[in-house]
Every structure is written in C-alpha cells, then in structure tokens.
Amino acid sequence: MSIIVDTPLWPGPRGWLFAHLASDASYEELHTFAQHLGLGPRAFDRDHYDLPEHLHARALDMGAEHVAPRELVTRLRAAGLRRPKGAFRPPADRPR
Asked: Each residue of 71-95: b (16+ CB within 10 Å) or e?
C-alpha cells in the first residue's frame, strides 16, 4: 500500500484543519482507502482527498504513511498521478 498523508495545516470549513491524503500507486487504491476511512467523493480534489484533522490519526492507524507536504507532491509527480488545477480528470480517476 502506498497511501500517503501530510500534516493537517490547511484551514477549512468549520474552523477545521485539513491534510492531504493521496496514493503514489493508483487512484483506485486511494479511493478504496478513502471509502474505508469514511471520506465521501466530495472530499476528493483532483489528485488527493482533503482529510479533516479528526481523521488524521485514524488514517495513520489504517496504514497511511506520514510525509512532509513537499514529499507528497514529489511522490505524486514521480508516479505520474499529479493533477494540477484545471487538469482534465478522466472518469476512471473520479471517486465512486
């Protein structure tokens, strides 16, 4: 499994902090992990899920690897899974 997550640093709704949850292997792996974690499709943004701070520890307990934010982006790029803003997202890349 190659699920990676960074530190919850980004402010979001309700005053929560968010982390990024991604896979450096496949979108299918990412969507499956997110579904088991309880994240809905609306939490998916191009190439990652926005992970609320209160689910961060659970993601780590489920086997996600904690990485620095820059490493997360580097690993997505190296795997060919990075989708910058405005990038077309094929239907197979979208969550179910």
From this structure: ebbebbeeeebbbeeeeeeeeebeb
Task: Say how far apart CA 92 and CA 11 lie, in whole Å.
Answer: 29
The pTM of this model reads: 0.85
* Residue carrying the six token digits 């899920």: 49
Domain extent at residue 19 = 3-85+87-91
Residue 13: pLDDT band (50, 70, 90) is: confident
Residue 8 lies in a domain: yes
Query: Residues 87, 59: contact at Cβ < 8 Å?
Result: no
